[in-house]
Amino acid sequence: MASKNTPPFIASNLAIDFINTQFGVGGEQQECLDDDSSVIAWLQQAGVLSEECESPPPGIVHIARELRDNMRELLISAQQGRAADPTVVNHVLERGYPLEKIEWQPTASAFQKKNYQRNMESESLLQPVASALVQLLTEEDLQLVKECEASDCVLLFHDQTKSHRRRWCSMASCGNRMKAAAHRARKKTST
After folding, report:
1. Where is the Zinc finger CGNR domain (predicted)?
2. For residue 26, what pLDDT is reported?
């Protein structure tokens, strides 16, 4: 059964979107990865799993949650300039690395490199998410990974705007809500 909670795809980064599969404030926690099938559904929605998965690998939800927690810890630690243990991410990277092959492409009259999943095991399915984190941590400006400024939102996003002034996870939800609240507060103080 797929998750009843719709995962937010607002981060402009696969790794951050995966971290955002658990969100909320206090007792209002939302869990998008609530069973093995919901992990497969998320990977398909994220566009990293195009193959049909007749039955998800048993226990993928546990590995996915461990990976998500480790990814969050690594990201926060890196932003703060301190070390953290990458054991879970490294495990997924090591066990899930894709097979790399070259194939002749007649339309281009050239060989092209193609990557294929090693198998349909948990680590192989989650490997693209772990690789996205590696790219984020090693090739991107981590100061552009921000938390939504809405007081009741904990979603992260990768600010890729030209001015790097993005403040909310989504203008359609938190941005409009916060602007309306600020307008009401200004109106209240002026009366």
Report:
1. 145-187
2. 54
